[in-house]
């Protein structure tokens, strides 16, 4: 497969899987009272007049209005063109009765950090392949991902053997940011539908290098108390570094076709979504860290420590994200160069955002906040415009 296999927007009609939906008439989807169409006598094929007088309306023909209790919520329904005077609705410039910005703010943050928060909160990543195909930037990102997979030798195209089943795949889209809030790149990741794997056939052992939250807090607390530097690095396509021992087949990625419809991808390297992929990658990383002189913690396998003379370096691993802290800037620089030689790394600079936690540092220490993570949960529940409610918090005692 090459880049030509992914059709451009002008040639999408050649592939029925990539046909974009036809533009629909504009609809006003701003919040407001729900409109239920009334049924008239004309629609039933009857005459609605009798001797010049209007026919009486039956029970099913009366106008319906939403409950007044719904005024406290955003119902995402069509707004009536001529609302009834009996049920006036409040007018709000933003269309939301209770904007979340009226109840939380970032006044206590610096201008530089406010820019970072605004960037990560305003991201709107595609939820599906069809949605991503509408943006040229995401199309280019998918081209780059496929090119990287092919250059890495992730798969070979082969006919599907008899008795074998090919797994499906899907695209996952994420916007990556620099530590200052600027967009680094649009990341498209091809993920295998590993939920269809069969134990003992498609995989045997599994393990995921996920740091415990207690370890994360202790790691950051030690760095803050000793005034150590905190850096963050990301491994580019980390799971592709693992060697795959099992015989696993995958269907062609969405948006890509082969001249032979009988060909499928036989995976030679581990890929995101496979149940054994995290274990394969972590084995490679542990080998590299121990080769540098790190010791792996028995309490949390994701924590590694290095001590040589007065130099101390700690590394915390969460899948493909690494937090690095230490007391020597030169030693940290040397270690990061070593990692870049072993893997394709991205230096994200000073730690700002990790596992949904926003990290702000000052002379007084570290401030951890999960504002974006919390707002994402509220937004997914459809309650971002709901009326806030106060509650009593428990008193903190020593």
TrEMBL record:
Disordered, as annotated region: 1-60
Pfam families, per database record: RVT_2
Biased composition (Polar residues): 9-18
InterPro entries: DNA/RNA_pol_sf (IPR043502), RVT_2 (IPR013103)
Reverse transcriptase Ty1/copia-type domain: residues covered: 152-389
Transmembrane regions listed in the UniProt entry: none
Organism the protein comes from: Vitis vinifera
Name of the protein this chain belongs to: Retrovirus-related Pol polyprotein from transposon RE2
């Amino acid at each position: 497969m090459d880049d030509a296999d992914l059709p451009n927007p002008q040639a999408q009609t050649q592939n029925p899987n990539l046909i974009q939906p036809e533009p629909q008439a504009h609809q006003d989807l701003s919040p407001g009272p729900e409109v239920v169409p009334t049924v008239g006598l004309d629609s039933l094929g009857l005459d609605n007049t009798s001797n010049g007088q209007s026919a009486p309306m039956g029970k099913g023909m009366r106008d319906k209005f939403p409950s007044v209790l719904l005024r406290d919520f955003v119902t995402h329904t069509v707004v009536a063109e001529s609302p009834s005077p009996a049920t006036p609705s409040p007018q709000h410039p933003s269309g939301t009765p209770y904007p979340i910005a009226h109840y939380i703010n970032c006044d206590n943050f610096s201008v530089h950090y406010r820019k970072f928060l605004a960037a990560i909160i305003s991201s709107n990543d595609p939820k599906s392949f069809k949605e991503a195909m509408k943006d040229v930037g995401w199309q280019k990102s998918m081209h780059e991902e496929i090119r990287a997979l092919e250059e890495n030798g992730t798969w070979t195209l082969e006919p599907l053997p008899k008795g074998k089943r090919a797994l499906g795949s899907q695209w996952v889209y994420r916007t990556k940011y620099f530590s200052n809030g600027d967009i680094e790149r649009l990341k498209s990741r091809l993920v295998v539908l590993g939920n269809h794997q069969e134990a003992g056939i498609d995989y045997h052992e599994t393990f995921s290098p996920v740091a415990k939250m207690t370890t994360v807090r202790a790691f950051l607390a030690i760095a803050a108390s000793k005034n150590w530097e905190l850096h963050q690095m990301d491994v580019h396509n980390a799971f592709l570094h693992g060697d795959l021992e099992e015989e696993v087949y995958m269907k062609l990625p969405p948006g890509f076709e082969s001249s032979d419809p009988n060909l499928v991808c036989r995976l030679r390297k581990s890929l995101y979504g496979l149940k054994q992929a995290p274990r394969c990658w972590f084995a490679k990383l542990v080998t590299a860290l121990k080769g540098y002189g790190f010791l792996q913690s028995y309490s949390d396998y994701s924590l590694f420590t290095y001590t040589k003379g007065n130099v101390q370096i700690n590394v915390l691993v969460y899948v493909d994200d690494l937090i690095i802290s230490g007391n020597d800037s030169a030693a940290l620089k040397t270690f990061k160069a070593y990692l870049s030689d072993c893997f394709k790394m991205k230096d994200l600079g000073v730690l700002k955002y990790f596992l949904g936690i926003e990290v702000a540092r000052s002379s007084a220490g570290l401030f951890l906040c999960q504002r974006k993570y919390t707002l994402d949960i509220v937004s997914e529940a459809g309650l971002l415009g709901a009326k806030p409610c106060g509650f009593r918090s428990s008193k903190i005692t020593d």
